[in-house]
């Protein structure tokens, strides 16, 4: 992972948690946001690795793609579970999903409903 991508991941997570970025769900495991003149896409994926035995192993990843103003990919990273950048990418994915799906509001509503029915 390049130092700039590392820094961008940290900044995206921070600004997402502060509610400063508008993430949109592309599907259940992919989200995107406009940032400056470009777009960032954060998604869960999988990478196929061939084992020495010839068997294929499917490893979960977090994939981050950054496009510039002309919609061309300017930076990207795919972080398998065993990659040192995976923890930061996974933390970003979790923050992005919570923001895009408004998870806190959904959970608050459920808890309020449960509290009301308990009284």
Tell me what you see in this structure.
The protein has 119 residues and is of the alpha+beta class. The chain has one domain. Helices cover 39% and strands 36% of the residues. The chain has 3 helices and 5 strands. Strands 1-2-3-4-5 form a 5-stranded antiparallel sheet, covered by helices on one side. Helix 1 runs parallel beside helix 2. It is globular. The mean pLDDT is 92.
Set out the fold topology.
Blueprint: H1 3-17, E1 24-27, E2 30-35, E3 38-50, E4 56-67, E5 73-80, H2 86-100, H3 103-118
Antiparallel strand pairs: 1-2, 2-3, 3-4, 4-5
Short descriptors:
single chain; 119 residues; alpha+beta; five-stranded antiparallel β-sheet; 3 helices; 5 strands; 39% helix; globular
Write a short abstract of this structure.
This protein has 119 residues and is α+β, with helices and mostly antiparallel strands. It has helices at 3-17, 86-100, 103-118, and strands at 24-27, 30-35, 38-50, 56-67, 73-80. It is built from 3 helices and 5 strands; from the N terminus they run H-E-E-E-E-E-H-H.
Largest sheet strand order:
1-2-3-4-5
Mean pLDDT level? 92
C-alpha-based Rg, rounded: 17 Å
Major beta-sheet overview: 5 strands, antiparallel
Amount of helix:
25-40%
Sheet-strand content, in percent, reads: 35-45%
The rough form would be described as globular
How far is the first residue's CA from the last residue's CA?
Answer: 52 Å
H/E element order? HEEEEEHH
Number of strands: 5
Integer count of domains: 1
Provide the structure class.
alpha+beta
């Amino acid at each position: 992972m390049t130092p700039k991508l590392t820094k961008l991941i940290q900044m995206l997570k921070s600004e997402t948690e502060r509610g400063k970025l508008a993430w949109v769900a592309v599907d259940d495991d992919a989200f995107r946001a406009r940032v400056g003149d470009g777009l960032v896409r954060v998604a869960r994926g999988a990478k196929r690795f061939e084992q020495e035995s010839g068997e294929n192993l499917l490893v979960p990843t977090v994939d981050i793609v950054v496009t510039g103003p002309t919609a061309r990919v300017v930076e990207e990273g795919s972080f398998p579970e065993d990659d040192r950048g995976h923890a930061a990418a996974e933390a970003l994915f979790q923050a992005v999903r919570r923001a895009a799906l408004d998870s806190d509001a959904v959970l608050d509503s459920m808890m309020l409903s449960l509290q009301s029915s308990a009284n």
